[in-house]
Amino acid sequence: MKQVLINNSIFFDQVAILKDGKLEDFFHEEKDAKSLVGNIYKGRVMNILPGMEAAFVDVGLDKNAYLFLDDLLSDKFLKEKNIRKKDAKNISKILKKGDEILVQIAREPIGEKNVAVTTDISISGKYIALIPKSIEVNISKKVKDAEERKRLVAIGKEIMENGNGMIIRTYAQDCTKDAIEKEYRILSSVYEQIEQEFGYSYAPKLMYKSNSLVEKVFMDSIDSSVDEIYVEDKNTKEKLSSMINMCGDELRNIKIVESERSFQEFEVEKQIQTLFERKVELQNGGSIFIDVTEALTVIDVNSGKYVGSENMEETALQLNLAAMEEIARQIRLRNISGIILIDFIDVKSKDNIELIISRAKSAFRDDKAKTNVLGMTKLNLMEITRKKNKENFYNLITQQCSHCSGSGRTASKIYIFLRLESIIKNIRKNTTSEAVVLKSGYIMNSFIQNNCMDIIKKIQQKYSIKIFFRVDENVLTDEIAVEKTGNTEYINSYLNSKIS
Rounded to whole angstroms, how far apart are CA atoms 391 and 336? Predict the structure, then answer.
């Protein structure tokens, strides 16, 4: 069974995708810091950096965006500017300071890096991605059936107009021409509006805002394999019902359930908590260790308690294959990107090495981020690269520890938001308590008192419950635990007794 769980907290929108109860994908977005990827801007070139083959473009954000030469040299852009490809070896010959250009956010800011933009504009729907000023009709590589590919290409060429091409997505498989054409016309209308506004608006200006998290998940993750969608409110339920109805009969069997406690019922928070951990246990007794550094991520496969067969080679192979499935899942959930090295248990047979490589390619086939399995070295190290478009989850929910100058990490403000609201929501749902005493270690308590009282007030107001904190030196560094709950008079009495 496959379920999609949508959770709306005070500070975050979160979506968990479960398969047979196991967390397969997790998406999150701050309410006050929506994702910028996909946004389209009229930008102004502020500076050219010939040595880096890049330009700084003002799109109206706090920092100027990077535009690299490779993200500038789309065929349609060069055609618009009447520039030959062979003359486009130097960015200074293509752009100059003060130029106004249409760009799209391709990558979120990561660490000290600014957002990155591209001139290769696309607008995504469920069935297609519109590619303006292109005559191409491309089909997703995940559509394997030759006859279906042929049918979709024919549909694409028939409905294409005004020189706007498209990429036909996986979800268009077995879809009717009418449904694809309807979406094509909607997206074409959106781009026409962008073109009109570009002509008379001043740069910098936001021309098109990408979809909300729920809309993105609907377009990218919800298909006929989904059995149930859990939502917290009627508005989200009605919105999803409307989007499903627009898709014809394909998604009509999906059941939408209204539930305020789906994350608790399916133990999603418990599964998310494991994303903190360096060691991940495998079902067969083996384990993997994940170490994220600034330059790359190293994942080590360990045999642990796994015994396997009497043949050492076969034992190592089976453990490596099982580990590969979990590694792909962890990379996806933690949004690990850049260079990834996997240290497998040694196998000697070339056939077995090829089998592991094949399993890796299969495991990453449906990954939304572009992932390349480069092969295996002589030391049984697998090399993988994964496109980086936003901060990885581990860096998001942790921060550098001020007590060890960055050699370790502690829970961030974002994690504290999630943890506190989860605790209070659970208390409000299951008790009539008016107040709660939470205990934490000295470092966590100090951080909450100095940095988080604004969110404490909001949580208190929303759930009508008074929150008190106490230091307990026996509580682990990143833990927040419930010490006492009850009416206000009882809690005040309890706290007074602790003081005296």
Answer: 8
